[in-house]
Amino acid sequence: MQIFALILLGLYVTIVVYVAFLGYITHHISGRNLAWILLWTSFIIIFGIIFVTKGNLYALAGVAAGLFGYSSVALRNAQYMRQVPQLKHHLIRMGIHLFFLFLLYLTR
Q1: Which listed residue, 4, 17, 66, 84, has the most CB atoms within 10 A of its CB?
Q2: Which phi-psi region, left, alpha or beta, contains residue 55 (left: φ > 0; alpha: ψ -120 to 50)?
Q3: CA 56 to chain centre
Q4: DSSP SS3 for 30
Q5: How many domains does the chain have?
Q6: Domain range for residue 83?
Q7: 86 Cβ neighbours under 8 A, 6+ residues apart
Q8: pLDDT digits (tens, 9 = 90+) for 50-66
Q9: Which domain of life does the protein's organism represent (predicted)?
Q10: How confident is the model over 67-76, as pLDDT tens digits?
Q11: Closest by alpha carbon to 78, among 35, 37, 29, 21?
Q12: 43 exposed, middle or buried (CB, 10 Å; 0-12, 13-18, 19+)?
């Protein structure tokens, strides 16, 4: 079950990074926000590996930092595009992140 949760999380992270690169190429996301996406992705990967290999529950906090870091980048990117952040999109994103954290917690 833990492998399934990690595969789902990996697919989500892959999609986020792919879309960030596409957004950077089309000038919908700044280079700084792309760098933040890559930083938060590294947090998810590093602490995910620690969580799986060592069984350390505190590493789940690092995964949470990476996931919620994605939300902060999305809110900053809305400011970069001179748009008002949409609360509905933010809540959906938070729900997805909480789902992944809950799934990882249950499969520890």
Answers
A1: 66
A2: left
A3: 20
A4: coil
A5: 1
A6: 2-106
A7: 78
A8: 988 888 888 899 999 99
A9: Bacteria
A10: 999 988 888 8
A11: 29
A12: middle
